[in-house]
Specification:
309 residues, Rossmann fold, 2 domains, four-stranded parallel beta sheet, alpha/beta
Length: 309
């Protein structure tokens, strides 16, 4: 009817079949590809990045600015960081002054996504730092508060990716359950230790929320930030406290220069018990997730406090 020859007809039929098969293949593949597309997000530091990954699962692709064993307090953003976050839809931060460099980064990057402060809705404890009363930003040291942080993360992810809402809610629920188990376990570790012996010396004042949750007094020569410098008077006072009270639980931190703590321990004639993970995960296998970090710290602290007098 259309005047096609036999070979032309076969060629046309082959083209039609190929087009049909291609359309069918695309129809089958496209939904899977849509599901496999990860939501690009960023997190300011390694601990928060791990919590975002725990809630976001395989629906998110997380970029981390301040990595394991790095100090967020003294971090200096680079042009590479601007490039890292430029393609992300959400940028998760701790807030409360923890990322003091954040305003500079936001100004330099003109960040097009949404900034999500995971501590929103939580009431911070206050502390005196260099004569000023400031909020303590280290809420992630309290698993109870981390539960709210996980819920805030799930809510932000759901707004950005409504199709994954049920998925994020389920993962946040499971993570909350793991944190509840962690709190129960930690209480059992600390239970045999009398309140008077629950005293620990660390590098900087990062464990106040942990102390508040479990009735532990943390002493530190440096304040809320590792940028704070311990005065000679403060160091001398700490040494006197150690000698007077018989504190044996003395720790370095993975993000801090150990020399000050080593000097205090030497002058007070006590030994350093090891390392705690304060504001960052570890590059070694001890604390590569937040749950591992918390377990390591609790075990180390509980064992050391048993030797306090």
């Amino acid at each position: 009817m259309f005047g096609l020859g036999q070979s032309a007809g076969k060629s046309w039929l082959g083209t039609v079949r190929f087009a049909t098969l291609l359309a069918l293949a695309l129809a089958l593949v496209s939904p899977a590809r849509a599901q496999d597309t990860h939501l690009p997000v960023a997190a300011s530091f390694s601990i928060l990045s791990d919590i975002v990954k725990a809630v976001g699962g395989d629906r998110v692709d997380v970029t981390t600015l301040v990595g394991p064993d790095q100090d967020t307090h003294v971090y200096e953003p680079t042009p590479a960081d601007v490039a890292k976050i430029s393609g992300t839809k959400l940028f998760f931060v701790n807030g409360l002054g923890f990322e003091g460099w954040m305003p500079r980064l936001m100004k330099a990057s003109h960040y097009p996504g949404k900034l999500v402060t995971v501590t929103n809705g939580l009431k911070p404890r206050t502390m005196v730092d260099e004569g000023r009363t400031v909020p303590d930003p280290h809420m992630f040291q309290d698993p109870e508060r981390v539960k709210t942080m996980a819920d805030n993360i799930a809510a932000a992810l759901s707004r950005a990716d409504p199709a994954g809402s049920a998925y994020y809610a389920e993962r946040a629920k499971n993570y909350r359950g793991a944190l509840d188990d962690l709190i129960t376990w930690a209480n059992k570790q600390f239970a045999p230790i009398p309140p008077a012996r629950r005293v620990v010396l660390t590098s900087h004042d990062a464990f106040g929320y942990l102390g508040q949750r479990f009735g532990i007094r943390f002493l530190a020569p440096e304040g809320v930030s590792t940028e704070s410098e311990a005065s000679a008077r403060d160091v001398a006072n700490l040494i006197r406290v150690i000698r007077r009270t018989g504190i044996k639980a003395v720790f370095m931190e993975n993000i801090s220069n150990p020399r000050l703590i080593q000097r205090i321990a030497r002058d007070a004639k006590v030994s350093v018990d090891g390392k705690l993970y304060s504001d960052a995960l570890s590059q070694n296998p001890e604390a590569t997730t937040y749950l591992q970090l918390f377990q390591h710290n609790v075990r180390a602290i509980a064992n050391a406090m048993k030797d306090n007098r």
